[in-house]
């Protein structure tokens, strides 16, 4: 075990309804390969948000 570096991962899986406000666009920022970075703009409506 001493050969392993210390690391942690936190992830989640979400599903959004197909609403006009929920969109993915390409930002002007590029990654290390020169490709545009995806920008997510999700919203939560009263009927989809859990109390």
**How far do the termini sit from each other?**
42 Å
Number of helices: 0
Tell me the strand percentage band.
25-35%
Compute the CA-based radius of gyration. 17 Å
Number of β-strand runs: 2
Strand ordering within the main sheet:
1-2
- What composes the largest sheet? 2 strands, antiparallel
Element string (H = helix, E = strand): EE
Helix content: under 10%
Q: Specify the structural class.
A: mainly beta
Low-pLDDT stretches: none
Question: Can you describe this structure in just a few lines?
Answer:
By secondary structure, this protein is mainly beta. It has strands at residues 23-30, 36-41. It has no helices and two strands.
Could you please describe the fold and organization of this structure?
- The protein is an all-beta fold and about 50 residues long.
- The chain has one domain (about 1-50).
- Helix content is about 0%, strand content about 25%.
- The chain is built from no helices and 2 strands.
- The model has no long low-confidence stretch (mean pLDDT about 75).
Describe this protein with a few key phrases.
single chain, mainly beta, two-stranded antiparallel ribbon, 2 strands, 0% helix, flat
Task: Draw up the topology in text.
Elements: E1 23-30, E2 36-41
Antiparallel strand pairs: 1-2
């Amino acid at each position: 075990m001493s050969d392993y570096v210390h690391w942690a991962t936190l992830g989640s899986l979400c599903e959004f309804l197909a609403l006009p406000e929920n969109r993915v666009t390409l930002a002007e920022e590029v990654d290390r390969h020169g490709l545009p970075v995806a920008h997510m703009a999700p919203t939560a409506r009263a009927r989809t948000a859990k109390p």
